[in-house]
Design goal:
Length: about 1150
Amino acid sequence: MAEIGLAASVIAVIDLSAKVALWCSEYSAKVKNAKDDIERLQGETQKLKETLKHVQSLCDSPNGAKLQASKDLCDGVKDCETYLSQLDTKLAPRKREKVMSRCGIHALRWSFTSNEVDGIIKKLDKCRDNISFNLQVDQTYVLLSIFCPKAQVDNIEYRAEILKIKQEIVLNKLKSVDNAAFDSYAEEHNSRCYQGTRAELLRQILAQIFSDEGKLGASFFFKRGEGDRGHAEMLFTTIAAQLVQKLPSLAPHVHNAIEADPAIPTKTLKQQFDTLVSEPLGRLCFDPQKPSTIVIVVDALDECAREEDVRVMIRLFSQAKRLSSVRLKFFLTSRPELPIRLGFGDISGSYECLALHQIPEPIIEHDISAFLEYELARIRNDYNKSVPEDRHLSPNWPGQTNIQSLVQMAIPLFIFATTTCRFIKDRRCGEPGDQLAKVLKYKTKSQESELDATYLPILDQLLIGLTSLRKDEVVRKFKEVVGTIVILASPLSTISLARLLDISKARVDQTLDLLHSVLSIPSNADTPVRLLHLSFRDFLLDTEKREKHLFWIDAKDVHKILATKCLDRLSLGECLKKDICDLRTPGRPRADIDKQTIDAHLPLDIQYACQYWVYHAKECGSVIRDDDQAHNFLQCHFLHWLEALSLMGRVSESISMIDDLIAMLDPMINEKASAFLYDAKRFILNCLSIADSSPLQLYSAALVFAPKRSVVRNTFQNYMPDWISQQPDVELSWNAVLQTLEGHSNLVQSVAFSHDARLLASASDDKTVKVWDTTTGALQQTLEGHSSSVSSVAFSHDSRLLASASDDNTVKVWDIAIGTLQQTLEGHSSLVSSVAFSHESKLLVSASWDKTVKVWNAATGVLQQTLEGHSSWVNSVAFSHDSKLLVSASSDNTVKQTLEGHSASNDETVKVWDIAIAKATLQQTLEGHNDWVRSIAFSHNSKLLASAVDDCTVKVWHAATGILRQTLKGHSGWLRSVAFSHNSKLLASASNDGTVKVWDVATGILQQTLDDDSVVRSVAFSHDSKLLASASYDKTVKVWNAATGTLQQTIAVNSYVSTLSFDITNSILITNIGRIKVDRARIPSFPTSSQEVSSKSDREGLGICGPWIIWNDQKLLWLPPDFRAETSGVSRTGSKLAIACQSGKVFVIGISQDILHRYYS
């Protein structure tokens, strides 16, 4: 069956490729202003078709059955089939266009921009590469099985090796939180539970049981104040990484998901859960009769920082039951805080619950007693083994009376029992008997809190026997070191702590020596010091204890000290500087830099200071004033700080940090600081995407393309690269555009803000709705489900629901928190043009081209009313603010349309102008063309003029008289380019038919037909007329012997070349994407064969590649969206680039290659 499935899919893809090519042909005939893009898409489809024909021929071969059994290859072909089917649907005229055509309006239009076509081609490239890769892997296996019989035995080992490779790739790409798993080093010494203490209900034992049985797939233990363990941002990437380690067969599916969307680790929790966990698990092959059970443990959910995330996670966990291939179960533990209770209220009936706090007190008493008996007996035995017999504790130590006293002191806090046992066991503080006596002394005191009895024995023993002066010193050091530890947003090691506080490590160690009962203090100086339990932090920071014990810590004071210390540390020497990781090349992506390199150049205390200095300033109530420490730091190190955040993968967090600083501005003395901060926010928003991916572009693209009056630009103008000899002309001030959100693959029809202004939704002809974070511009959700264009979107007024209207005649209602489809409202008989919620969010109204308005219950999806009365399409609807009135707007039986756009020379003529006259006068109008003229060229003796026409002909004219001398026929496709040789004896023509033809100018006889196998865009002769170069849509440049037609060299350039010419030496090709070397020395050695040359060795000088200016094939300067090239040209000197943008703006930028050579020699 697999063989039939693959063969059928291959045939389907070949047929779809042909169908897409036919659509392209139809658009080519009717749409004149997008022929280049149409031809590019057609060419890429043809390449895909050829790949699939190759697969088909291999499937039909004698060993095809083995090849066809490959699941990876089948999946690759099916993915390709799905995408081509979607592309076919997009190319088909939409319903709206058909309706307009019936009204007599010519409505067929090409819906893709050049950038969108780039994206489509990239996806088709990816489909082709994926098929080729799997084909290569599976062919290797087939060959092994044919020639090496043992290979059949080793099939499992071979596949395991492939999985291992993919597993390593996935683990390198997934960010995961250190020490979040139950068996991590940080959790190693936490107390475990014992027989007789209802172990089956408690988290560690459960995790251990699941692990022993092989059911534990992953675990994540939240912990407030522990950096990334304190929030959900990396929850699902961590779980996915653990699942891939546990189940190697999951690796290819997670790998494909990351390849499809490399930014998935930064997306919403819903998208991460679906893409990295749910969907990959759903693709695993298990026995449906005996599905495997995978348990994921999530502990201390209440310690997750964002309450909204808690509710979202609970709802996502409840969706695990939808998987049929595997039994996925989530085991959660948490305190019953309000967000937790609300979250479980949302999924009532979908979970089993046990409330541990409702366990009767006798059971709690029994459990604590069992724990104390076991632990104290272990302490007694360990102590007796380590001392002479005369110092032994008695065999019945500590005795039942003392144990019961401890139990009564502990109830209901298990933490008292665990902390007390650590204290008694700690030999640095004294012998076990003495330590127990210190704890029991607190039994007789009237305690206001069980925490006093837990922690005061430990703290008071720090002061025993000290003078008043010495006590003050101990308390001061305690507040300095331990106060910092309990306030830190993320734990630090002792060495990092010492550096941050600017004190000796010995001072830190001495302060912590007697606190092992309450702190996890590793022997390794590079491992973070952690609180053993958050109740210790609560105890120290409790404001009611301010006057009751010496160790009380003022949180605001510590935050203030830490804010200052962070900025001091960051401002010291070269802790922050340009190119701190010595990347050197300005376009080098952050993804290429390993964590070890980053940590070596940015020590963990520096990383902490970069990430949290604003947090500490905010928490202590700091006020930002002109020329204060914060303002001065930003004026010196703003770009360095952003670079460091980028290297840490946290540059997007800078936006909220700047917002916090703006909120802290002194209302009186803030003119300079305010101007800097407001400009800084615009600066970050403008360059966020490139700053995140290529940190050093902060000093080039971000500065160069910032407005001339930008405070940041002018503050750091000395950082502008000296290799930019001529800066592009930019605006004076920031314009009204805050952000450009890129991601849709087709026209955007509608946008709407949520009413809390946190989100923005966009509806597109690509059949999706995208939801964006309005603060950072980050894509939060992509909502898929409509089968046609989405024409309208609207948020409910409580910002919980989102409605989308589509040309597929439906309205869909989405839960915006997790991106799940709640309702699909069906009933309209034509496309739905508009939707709106009532102001109390109870009703939803939709307008349609079926001339009706429908009112729905937003919660249930029940149709309440159908309002009829319009005689034509209804285009818009809206509720009054009291939700009592509804207004709808309709067409009046007519469609009026003003077609605006660029005018083009479509009059099928060529005009020749005399420019020697002061005022240019028209000399000739050359008539005789039957279609568009695509290219013209003068002969080098200026006597002839050639024109390339869409009617597949080349016409040669006498330049002086305008008389037609020849019409050269032979091409079967549009002509793209013509060029004369420098001796004016030969004429080359490039065509859409994939050939270059060389003609004798004098006789018009065809001399050579050069087969390029792809659409040829441009041709050029060398100055000695011996070589001919052609540039094609297959992203290659070919060099031919002009006399013999022999292909001498094929140069892969990985980009589209539209213009090319030889320099005077005939060894350099000057193109729109840069200068390319022609290796003339090697050409004579290969007179009869093609020579494949990598683009890396042959691209030199300046050029354009996608959103980048490149130099010697290296990324040099990123172009923001408004500065992207629709077309471009390089000066003959190779030092200037002219770039024409989609907006109509043209700018020139100069680059000093001499300086670049010095930098990169």
